[in-house]
Amino acid sequence: MTETPRATRRRTSVVGVLGEILITAGVVVLLFIVWQQWFNDIVVANTTRSEASTLSRELGRQTPDPVQSGAPATSTSPPVGRAPANGAKFAVLYVPRFGSTYQVPIAGGTDTTQTLNTGAAGHYDSTQMPGAVGNVAIAGHRTTHGAPFAAIADLRVGDHFYVQTADGYYTYTFRNLEYVKPTQVQVLQVVPDAPVVSTASRDRLITLTSCNPKFSAAERIIAFGSFTSWQPLSAGAPGEIKSIVTKG
Amino acid sequence: MYSALWRVLPGPWWLRVVILIALAAAVVYALVTWAFPYVDTFIDSPNVTVGSS
Q1: So what's the ipTM on this one?
Q2: Which residue from A93, A120, A94, A95 is spatially nearest to A109, judged by alpha carbons?
Q3: Tell me, what's the pLDDT at A215?
Q4: CA distance to partner chain A, nearest, from residue B19 (Å)
Q5: CB of B24 less than 8 A from some CB of A
Q6: For residue A146, what is the domain's CATH number?
């Protein structure tokens, strides 16, 4: 139909146009949700992965600069790096349970816009550095913004966390999950959940925090792991993550 | 609104459909590239840290 006679043409009504605008707005909002919850996650996760593999190569070129010197580091008494500046990516986290190609950068501090919303994991600057006696606490999104900790609830006892810094590979073994209120900062303590804040500890622990339930901020899901071993970068990546490191 | 858009488009119906699909694709591209990332900065994501931050 090329030339519709004017008389039969439907009159444009205000309500009609308003309806079309509202329907369009509804479709745009639905598109946004698809973008935010699914599409953008994949895009950010991919960017983060390539960032992590670039960082992994860079770490290999950096000169190790651990805090303590003297006794040579051993697999059970690892070197401890210096605390990074806020937002500075200083380590790469590998968790085979989170995917066969999973790797994500860890930045200093848990700033939302600077660190967490870029898809990276954030190191609580009030906690210890990898390898140190005490607790290495790391936060990451469980949904949206790349969702680095999307599969945190799938961890099984014995799963490994690998943290690569300029000082080497630190292997931690997953121990247990815990669900806490957002105010329960005790999970970050040197001795997590100890009733009295204690600095006396001989354990080297790692703590991952994310939101719980998914899409909510009502609670936090916490994953604890304990230190297993350390090896220098020159020794190559641990077997379980060798393919990820060399491929990247 | 959309009926007016349909009328101002040139050509036979199939060409108009092609133009409309191209237009829709351009709009979606603009939304995903600029609008959605901008809007996202105003939306709080679920907090993942314990403590005040």
Answers
A1: 0.86
A2: A120
A3: 85
A4: 17
A5: no
A6: 2.40.260.10
